[in-house]
Fold:
Amino acid sequence: MAEKPLILVTNDDGINANGILHLSNIAMKFGDVYIIAPDKPQSGMGHAITINSTLRLQKSQYHKGALLEYNCSGTPVDCVKMAVNKLLPRKPDLVLSGINHGSNSSINVIYSGTMSAAIEGSLEGTSAIGFSLCDYSPHADFSGTTHYIDKIISSVLADKLPDGVCLNVNFPKLTFKEIKGLKVCRQAKSNWVEEFDERHDPHGNPYYWLTGKFINFEPEAEDTDEWALQNGYASIVPTLHDLTAHNYINHLKNIL
Amino acid sequence: MAEKPLILVTNDDGINANGILHLSNIAMKFGDVYIIAPDKPQSGMGHAITINSTLRLQKSQYHKGALLEYNCSGTPVDCVKMAVNKLLPRKPDLVLSGINHGSNSSINVIYSGTMSAAIEGSLEGTSAIGFSLCDYSPHADFSGTTHYIDKIISSVLADKLPDGVCLNVNFPKLTFKEIKGLKVCRQAKSNWVEEFDERHDPHGNPYYWLTGKFINFEPEAEDTDEWALQNGYASIVPTLHDLTAHNYINHLKNIL
Structure:
């Protein structure tokens, strides 16, 4: 590649989070870094886009060394769309999202703004990777992830991901020495059993907070991301945006 | 089944939309209908959930014949979670979402609140179907869809969908006589090229509206939902929430 790779960095915890700071600093070793990220936390936004209201963009300079930096009032997917279609000088070579403060393994991938930004990157025809650390603290220690992120970025820049595939990388809450390695996995079958915490406002009217308990339906399955994380590995799951259940097409033709 | 099927109906256009009225009236022929739907339009919300703010629920009676009806301040996925975990007397036998005012074919599935509600239904272990009509008008004519929705609901109640699969059904903007039939398809490869419409507020500051142009990358592929809809068929795509690119796992193991 004659010119340096153009790397777009975004996240869902907001442009000020420590996770995106760690990730963009790593990205700067590999290319020209452009940061377009939400101006506030956007966790759990999934693949939401802003179509019924307006978007704002603001130039900022939180990240020393970034070639261009904007924060956007929209969702993580809005940020990628804004970047690719309006702000970047050319199509990016790589989209990086994260590092998320908290897990995006197994079914969490579907609710995750971090991973939806990566999936949107792959929709734009660009290699894309979402990174998450299984630690929700704003002051989480990301240092154990650096070695692996270096390795994954090198590998993906050398061997572009195939059309329609991005990567979902999750790190256990461990130091570099404690992490046993990187394991390629599939998404574990899992779900959340929700408990709605009912409270009453000062006027006596009820309102609810969504809380829940995570259930792994296959804790013994060693080829899953949950197993890897529970057993001290970082997990990496190749992730699609073609949601078609190809295996079920013929059966469906027969029953309809 | 000794008791009547329990059917949850939701949508993303809001509880007052004509599409959910049409769908819930059909559903009442098949079972006991519970409607829990957003209190306002939630198009483009994808699989977003409300975790950083609170949810409100309000009992309503827009739909004559529903056993219970609530509108919820949250997203379509919030509505399904609220219904299944809090409001319904037992696990539903079927989750129906729609009928959406507008297409949810091909890549639109990933941005769609309608389809995310159906996917959430399948995550809860329930057969689930999202219906959409390729007509964005609030006064769209849904009468051409009735025959096919009857047929699909009958079929799915008789033959439960497999674990992890829901259905994405789209209807062309045609009368019943004009619709050529129902076609089982895969999701077409497609994308949106976005154009951000830049305007200025009364204070002179810029803001943006997301608009875009839909691109079908494979207009000749007769096994896709886009082809079906363009050629006068209703499309039905079996849809997954396992996003793993299973075919790419071995290659990834080799390069990392």
